[in-house]
Amino acid sequence: MPTPPVTGPLCTRETLADDLRALGVRPGETLLVHSSLKSLGWVCGGAPTVVRSLLDTLGETGTLVVPAFSNDNSDPAPWRRPAVPEEWWETIRGALPAYDPRTTPSRGVGVIPEAVRTWPGALRSDHPQCSFAAIGPGASRITAGHPLDCALGERSPLARLEEAGARVLLLGAGFGSCTSFHLAEYRVPGPVVDVSFAATTPRGREWLTVRDTALDSEDFAELGADFERDARSVERGRAGAAVCRLFPVRDAVSYATRWLPVHRPYEG
User: Fold this and answer.
1) Are 48 and 35 in contact (CB under 8 A)?
2) 9-62 per-position pLDDT tens digit
3) What is the DSSP letter of 172?
4) DSSP states of 98-144
5) CB of 157 within 8 A of CB of 234?
6) How confident is the model at residue 129, as a pLDDT?
7) What's the longest Cα–Cα distance across the chain?
8) pTM score > 0.90 for this model?
9) Cα dihedral across residues 159, 254, 173, 40: positive or negative
């Protein structure tokens, strides 16, 4: 059976940079990018080409930030995709490699963040599950000091992105990927949970459990649709074949802080 032909459009470093500028990405800004490579079309050079086009658009004074999550560094008891036998749990807790910001691969966020994570000069924050990677002059300020008990809250890179006036680019990704909404979960009443992972401490590798805000993105697509309808700050466009949205982190967090108590009433 013949291999089906590839589909386009054909995207190059230059055409993607042109599309990003037309969308409104500005030189010198700080940009948090959630992305889907396959949504763009046929990208000549793959994920590194997309990173180069983003850096070209932001320029030398801009900062590119991506989620570099490693959620597989977690307690095996609730795993469902796939579940593992209960008799394995303690062995996994004792053997799971400790998070290392230099070498732990990202997981579940796509190939473009992994390209950013491994980019020369990239920095990465220290949370074993919810790290961010960044390139540019603001990278150190954004990624420094990410405490283990604050994955996506007030002491995380998300809060620093909000303070810096950063914008979010959904590059072919939907609002279900919008981590900025998680910062709002820390600002409204909600549950807290135990979170476990393998971390590197001054004493070496340790299996740690901390208390943190419960994170839930199940309704973020609905939240994002309401935000896009109601907010005036969401700009839409395309890069290649990908539908893109561009908006301030601050606006997304503010809207979600009002939306969540209505749609997720918490009675404690």
Assistant:
1) no
2) 999 999 999 999 999 999 999 999 999 999 999 999 999 999 999 999 999 999
3) B
4) PP-TTTPPP-SS-HHHHHHHTSTT-EE---SSS-EEEESTTHHHHHS
5) no
6) 98
7) 59
8) yes
9) negative
> What is the pLDDT at residue 7?
74
SS3 at position 217: coil
Q: Which helix (H) or strand (E) holds 6?
A: none
Tokens of 105: 């691969």
The whole-number pLDDT of residue 12 equals 98
> Which residues make beta-bridge pairs with 43?
11
Q: How far is 238 from 65, CA to CA, in rounded Å?
A: 20
Number of Cβ within 10 Å of residue 90's Cβ equals 11
Burial class (CB in 10 A: 0-12, 13-18, 19+), 105: exposed
* Cβ 126 vs Cβ 105: under 8 Å: no
> How many CA atoms are closer than 13 Å to the CA of 172, on its beta-carbon side?
19
pLDDT band at 81 (very low <50, low <70, confident <90, very high): confident
Q: For residue 196, how many C-alpha atoms fall within 13 Å in the half-sphere facing its CB?
A: 14
Burial class (CB in 10 A: 0-12, 13-18, 19+), 41: buried
pLDDT in tens, 175-214: 999 999 999 999 999 999 999 999 999 999 999 999 999 9
